[in-house]
């Protein structure tokens, strides 16, 4: 898995970093757009992102490891030698853990590593990660990804024109099939939908590329969580 790096910088707390350039399919600048401050302008919470990423990676573990206990190892049913008179310590089975080929004491068994993480924490971590990339100028915006036919050459040329030349996380909508096929052959590009957007993938890539529609969806989705958290905090204060 690629190493994750926080792109923290020493910029002031103004909203200059929220202004991003809009590009067309030819890589030409066609204007500017201000990102939502509630989604891309929060102060990154490193401890929260660490906790959420740890839980995410833990949930991805298969947990299928298994060792055999002395009851599961084949053989060893007979007592190896008589109880008394040999001068040796008594033994009941050659499949006890201290024998070669015996069972494993307290070995790993299949289990789930999943950690319960509140949905609000997950969404807050995503906002922190997006804000970190925005503060570093690592957000790119294309008006639309309208490919008439799949073209890896055109996809690579677009990324080069907008300056996304390293690991790229491309956020696509559900119906952008031609765009998905165009970028899928590029090893440095990871494709993801708005619903799949998560903290780990944001931090594992250098650049985040949206189009107009996916940016609106992300801001709407994460803003809805902010509003709900505000309401819950107000309800808690009234009690």
What can you see in these coordinates?
By secondary structure, the protein is of the alpha/beta class. It has a domain at 16-52 and 117-238: Ribosomal Protein L4, Chain: A (3-Layer(aba) Sandwich), CATH 3.40.1370. It is 36% helix and 13% strand. It has seven helices and six strands; from the N terminus they run E-E-H-H-H-E-H-E-H-E-H-E-H. The protein has helices spanning 37-40, 46-59, 119-135, 152-162, 177-183, 199-204, 212-238, and strands at 19-23, 29-34, 139-142, 168-172, 189-193, 207-211. It has a six-stranded mixed β-sheet. A hairpin with a 5-residue loop joins strand 1 and strand 2 (29-34). Helix 2 (46-59) crosses helix 3, helix 3 packs across helix 7 and helix 4 crosses helix 5 (177-183). The longest helix has 27 residues, at 212-238. The chain is elongated and about 95 Å long. The two termini are 46 Å apart. Mean pLDDT is 90; it is low at 9-13.
């Amino acid at each position: 898995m690629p190493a994750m790096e926080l792109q923290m910088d020493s910029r002031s707390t103004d909203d200059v970093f929220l202004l991003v350039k809009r590009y067309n399919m030819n890589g030409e600048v066609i204007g500017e757009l201000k990102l939502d401050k509630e989604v891309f302008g929060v102060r990154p919470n490193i401890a929260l992102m660490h906790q959420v990423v740890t839980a995410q990676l833990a949930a991805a573990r298969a947990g299928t490891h298994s060792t055999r206990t002395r009851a599961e190892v084949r053989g060893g049913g007979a007592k190896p030698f008589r109880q008394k008179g040999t001068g040796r310590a008594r033994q009941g089975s050659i499949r006890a853990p201290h024998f070669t080929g015996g069972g494993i004491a307290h070995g790993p068994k299949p289990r789930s590593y999943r950690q319960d993480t509140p949905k609000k924490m997950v969404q807050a971590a995503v906002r922190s990660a997006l804000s970190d990339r925005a503060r570093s100028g690592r957000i790119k915006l294309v008006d639309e990804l309208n490919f008439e036919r799949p073209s890896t050459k055109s996809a690579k040329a677009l990324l080069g024109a907008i300056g996304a030349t390293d690991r790229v996380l491309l956020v696509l909508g559900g119906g952008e099939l031609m765009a998905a096929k165009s970028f899928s052959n590029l090893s440095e590009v990871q494709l993801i939908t708005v619903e799949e957007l998560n903290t780990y993938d944001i931090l594992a890539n250098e650049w985040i590329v949206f189009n107009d529609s996916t940016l609106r969806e992300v801001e709407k989705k994460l803003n809805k969580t902010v509003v709900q958290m505000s309401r819950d905090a107000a309800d808690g204060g009234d009690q």
